[in-house]
Amino acid sequence: MKITVVGAGAVGASCAEYIAIKNFASEVVLLDIKEGFAEGKAMDLMQTASLNGFDTKIKGVTNDYSKTANSDICVITSGIPRKPGMTREELIGINAGIVKTVSSSLIQHSPNTIIIVVSNPMDTMTYLVHKSTNLPKHRIIGMGGALDSARFKYRLAEALDAPISDVDGMVIGGHSDTGMVPLTRLATRNSVPVSKFLSNDRLNQVMEDTKVGGATLTKLLGTSAWYAPGAAVSGLVQAIACDQKKMFPCSVLLEGEYGMNDICIGAPVILGRNGIEKIVEIELNDAEKAHMVESAKGVRATNDLL
Ligand SMILES: NC(=O)c1ccc[n+]([C@@H]2O[C@H](COP(=O)([O-])OP(=O)(O)OC[C@H]3O[C@@H](n4cnc5c(N)ncnc54)[C@H](O)[C@@H]3O)[C@@H](O)[C@H]2O)c1
Ligand SMILES: O=C(O)C[C@H](O)C(=O)O
Fold first, then answer.
1. Which positions are catalytic residues (predicted)?
2. Global model pTM greater than 0.95
């Protein structure tokens, strides 16, 4: 199993590290445009192999796509991150050009690859990859919902004063400060709806804290987060590589599902060796449906900027 990660910055390197530590891939190629940067990150990571007990070979290359040839999965993290006070949508001007060029170069060398898009604004970048390549829809996956759901579970566990392993929950919709749809109605602690333990006000607080999860970290760090994003990407990569048939909310091209067409937005999918093996349609109530419609409006407005 060969995996390429484009962008050896904070998220790309973290993602490569988690993939290696989980020890399911034979090779990870880390590619960056900055001379020597990916080579340095790869060497540093390889020097953790004996300490962390993995055999995955991590190779770094400067913009040489021939070294990515025949990758089973390619992850795109190249592009600029936001600074405090910015929205993800403001990154479109620079990141659209990068994502378009990078996806085309990847496909030239790995025509059968599955692409995972991470660069922001992620739903629009995923849509761009659909529009600018001829890859079938099941081979283009946007990562956002897996991260947002992890943050939702963190906030739920905090509110419940419970271990995170007791908590389950999912965030669908657009990966933006206003567009996320945390499904509080369906969240549980050991199969018991969380509304049994938390007031509506507390649940609303959890929902709002989840939606601004990325912005909160950006304010604290001065740039956007990387550990949880890297771990979330590695989870998707592992589900595909190991044919796990796991369910994650991912940005996926909808063709009628959730009453939407011609948009990439977060919805639950089953991930296995073929990429997106199924889009799961869950029954939403009227408020959740309205939330999804609003979320899609925001994503479409950003798509219109392409
Ligand atoms: N979808 C998500 O949930 C999620 C989570 C975190 C970050 N992100 C996004 O991921 C992107 C990367 O974030 P980061 O913190 O790793 O940024 P970073 O600046 O640390 O790393 C980005 C890397 O991309 C490289 N790069 C730029 N143009 C390139 C090109 N044409 N080819 C190859 N490499 C190129 C840069 O040299 C840099 O090393 C940002 O757009 C950020 O908003 C998305
Ligand atoms: O917040 C960001 O800009 C980065 C990423 O989308 C995140 O949610 O951490």
1. 175 (proton acceptor)
2. yes
